[in-house]
Every structure is written in C-alpha cells, then in structure tokens.
Amino acid sequence: MRVSREQVAINRQKILEAASRLFRERGYDAVTVAEVMSAAGLTHGGFYGYFKSKDDLIAQTLSHVFAQGEVGETDVARYAARYLSRAHRDNLAGGCPTAALGAETVRQTPEARAVMAAGLKKQIERLSAAKAASGDASTAAHARRAAIGSWSAMVGAVILARLIDDPALSNEILDETHAWIDDRDRDSIQNI
User: A Pfam family name for this chain (predicted)?
Assistant: First the structure.
C-alpha cells in the first residue's frame, strides 16, 4: 500500500522527534535505527524510505532540533534563568542539543558537524542581537563578546551540572553561573 505525501511528512516528523529525544538522552552510538523507528511507532524496514543512513538521520535530526529552537526567548536574563534551571539540567531528552550532543558531534560526519556549527552561529547571533537591543553592550562587538561568553558559560554549566553526582554542587554550578552572567550584564551596563 502506497503512503500519501501527507503521511510521509507526518512519519518523517515522528522519526525526527523520536530521534531527537533518544539521541539527546542516550547519545548517537547508544541508539539504533530500529529503536528510533520503534519509538516513532513505525517499522524498521521503512527507515530507508526516509533517510539514506543513520548518519543522514543524525544530521537531519540536529537540523530539526535547531530549527525548533529558533523561536525563543529574546530576553537574555530570562533565557539564562530557564537554561540554567534544574528542570533543564534534568531533561536530557528534551534539553539543549549543544549541551547533550556537542562533544559527540565532533566525531560525526562533516554534515552533522556543519549543522551543529550553524546552530551555534545562529544562537550566538540571537544572543548578540538580544544583548545589543537590551542596552547590555556599548558596541556590536561587545554584544557579540558578551553573547559568546554567556552562551559558553551556560552550556558548560549544564554539562558540568549533569556530570556531578553531588546534587548540592550540581545546583551550585547552575546558580553561580547564572549569578555570574547577571553580574557581567550589570557590569556591562554600568560601563556604557
């Protein structure tokens, strides 16, 4: 039985959603194509009708996840508060793809790496624009520097907080990184 174009699009979306959750939760190598298809409610045999290979699935899943993140918070302080929350730290499957998969993506195909790099560039541009619009920076170069520093601190903090088996220290890493970003923003405004 032939599947309609609409159903193909729906199935593809289901596969990308399932892969995005599984890859972020368990990593690329720990997830099989069969597991992705099962999580999407489809049979393994149909996979190659949607993707050329698992590598293609990885690259397209990253693209899918980053596209979802494009509608986001424009207030950096609110974004940092949400990003550095315990809920985000604990939500591997639904959290930031950079924090969950960045180190693994370095060892993936050039296509997957390019998608990750493009996602990171867009995030830096969004945060730079938000910092410039909020008056947190005196120049575009300063806004970009602040965005890169803040984003790097946020991603690093989530990675470290997830690695720590001491809940108090894990929480402290999130809280202190958020405080550090707030302090940097206050200092930037005072120096304008």
Answer: TetR_C_13
